[in-house]
Design goal:
The chain is of the alpha+beta class. The protein folds into three domains: about 80 residues, Rossmann fold (3-Layer(aba) Sandwich); about 140 residues, ATP-grasp fold, B domain (D-amino Acid Aminotransferase, Chain A, domain 1); about 60 residues, Dna Ligase, domain 1 (2-Layer Sandwich), CATH 3.30.1490.20. Helices cover about 30% and strands about 20% of the residues. Helix 1 links the parallel strand 1 and strand 2. Helix 1 crosses helix 10. The longest helix has 17 residues. The relative contact order is 0.17. Cell wall formation.
């Protein structure tokens, strides 16, 4: 992959970070790192915390484009993208509909299943769901999680039926929509996707080895014990197969710019399963897209410039007659 060497004139750039979601802490770290990287490359970049400032004030900042370093609700789910469309401010990452669908784990699964892509079986849970029936369908252990949160927030690995009520209650604190998902025992992988010149490319896979196989919020963002292996150690044929699935999953949702798909490679038969897609991945020191980009020959600063160059809108403004 070619490095970015051309110095572009991006105008005044806003780096949107912070926000109001449960992932605010991570977004603050991502945004500061992105802004520093852009400034180091001579970009007129400015931080804008959408959690501390009214997003409606964005138009008054006269940004020529923005880099979205927001994670979770109100930043990754189509809400901010819709506002930026109204303001005619080009932004990085996926558009309104793709962002909304990718944030919804149930909708993502429905689309992937319709495309014939492998993803773990699931059941949408309600307060009056028959947990015994759910377990009969999915088996134990299983995963219970909110449908619209990331970073493993509100997630429980349920090993016995007595845990189901508490698992549902925890997930419900984050979201009114909750799902139970078949647990796949296997290797945890992630596939970053980056577009250059409008063509999405799958970056090298990363294998995640977390302490006690527990890739929770702490181990994901703040632990130095979690190992990220890139190269991942798989043979070329298997890595290519998983990358192909990831690209198909990305395109099925209509994403653009970049993204990251989490994957499980089942131990019993080496079959891969797509778990979910992050349309605004983390950009911290522990984040995975920068690691994969570096393995592909792209520095953190070059990655930020590549993403900034891709900033666009869903709808092209018609010229006034």
């Amino acid at each position: 992959m070619d490095k970015v060497t051309k110095k572009d004139s991006f105008g005044k750039v806003g780096v949107l970070y912070g926000g109001k979601s449960a992932e605010r802490e991570v977004s603050l770290i991502s945004g500061r790192a992105v802004c520093d990287a852009l400034k180091n490359r001579g970009v007129d970049a400015h931080l804008f915390d959408t959690g501390m400032n009214d997003p409606a004030c964005l138009q008054g900042e006269n940004f020529d484009r923005v880099f979205i370093a927001l994670h979770g609700r109100y930043g990754e789910d189509g809400c901010m993208q819709g506002m930026l469309e109204e303001m005619r401010i080009p932004y990085t990452g996926s558009g309104v509909l793709a962002s909304a669908m990718a944030m919804d784990k149930i909708m993502t699964k429905r689309l992937w299943q319709a495309e014939g892509l492998p993803t773990p079986r699931y059941v949408e849970l309600k307060a009056d769901s028959d947990f015994s029936e759910v377990i009969d369908r999915l088996g134990l252990p299983l995963i219970v999680k909110p449908a619209h949160e990331g970073s493993t927030l509100g997630l429980t690995k349920v090993k016995q039926i007595e845990q189901m009520a508490d698992a549902y209650a925890l997930a419900s604190k984050y979201d009114r929509s909750v799902l139970a998902e078949e647990f796949i025992d296997g290797m945890e992988l992630t596939c970053a996707i980056l577009e250059q010149d409008g063509k999405p490319q799958a970056l090298p896979l990363i294998r995640i080895v977390a302490p006690d196989s527990n890739y929770d919020y702490h181990n994901k963002y703040f632990s130095d014990e979690t190992q990220y292996l890139c190269p991942c150690g798989l043979d070329e044929a298997m890595e290519t197969r998983i990358q192909r699935y990831a690209l198909q999953g990305y395109e099925a949702l209509g994403c653009r710019g970049w993204g990251r798909i989490d994957v499980i490679l089942r131990t019993s038969d080496n079959e891969p399963f797509l778990l979910e897609l992050n349309s605004s991945p983390g950009m911290t020191g522990h984040s995975l897209v920068p690691l994969a980009a570096r393995q592909a020959g792209l520095s953190y600063e070059d990655l930020c410039l590549t993403l900034l160059r891709s900033a666009t809108l869903d709808h092209i403004k018609h010229k006034e007659s």
